[in-house]
Amino acid sequence: MRTLVLVFTLLVCGPAPAAPVSQDYLCVQGHEQDVTNKLQTYIRQAVVDFFKRRRIAINSSTLQINLTNSTQPGADGPPYISFTGGAAAGSSGLTASAVAGTVAAQDGTKFNVLLSSGSDTQGAAEYRVVSRQRGFDREGNAIGRHCALKLFNSGAFEATESLLIINAASGHALGLIRLPARISLY
Predict the structure, then answer these.
(1) Phi then psi for 25, rounded to 5 degrees?
(2) Centroid of chain to Cα 54
């Protein structure tokens, strides 16, 4: 009898609809690698500036930034983009998703760049997709469309708004770098 009721319900109502994809998120589709490249470029320059301010000479050829992104369903809003790092050599004790990059000083000292403000659970940078446009033309095409990412915290314990630079051997923190509040895509 229960099977009959379930079959009848599916025939009449159809399958449950999937969560709608926000119009804002659609502006990023097909541009995910561009967004990742922009954030990696920002981090690369921020790391160089970080060490320059501290008068620590780094070997620029050792600077590696490795991010991946994924679309996360928004529990209380539209989907968002989450950036995580890749594993790095000598990152024992660190979650692989937290290590966004590595660099070595001229004297050989190695440093890790973490997506974290210091918490063991942090490892992701979360950006809400924001799109705007001026209107539509006669054919219904968007006019003056712009797409950007805005840093936010979804409330997940894994979310962070900064990068932590640590000595890879000792684990001592050198300092923080703020992630960009906004990334303009187009």
Answers:
(1) -60, -35
(2) 27
Confidence of residue 9 (pLDDT cuts 50, 70, 90): very low
CA separation for the pair 34, 158 (Å, rounded): 24
Residue 176 pairs with which residues in a beta bridge? 164
- The answer to whether residues 83 and 98 touch, using CB atoms and an 8 Å cutoff, is no
Strand bridging mode 124-132 / 159-160: parallel
Residues 87-116 have pLDDT tens digits of: 544 444 555 557 999 999 999 999 999 999
Q: What's CA 52's distance to the chain center, in Å?
A: 25
Average pLDDT taken over every residue of the chain: 82
What DSSP string describes the chain? -HHHHHHHHHHHH-SPPPPPPPHHHHTTTT-HHHHHHHHHHHHHHHHHHHHHHTT--EEEEEEEE-EEEEEE--SSSS-EEEEEE---TT-TTS-TTTEEEEEEETTS-EEEEEESSS-SS--EEEEEEEEE-SEE-TTS-EES-EEEEEE---S-TTEESEEEEEETTT--EEEEEEPPSEEE--
CA distances from 37 to 42, 43, 44, 83 (A): 9, 10, 10, 11
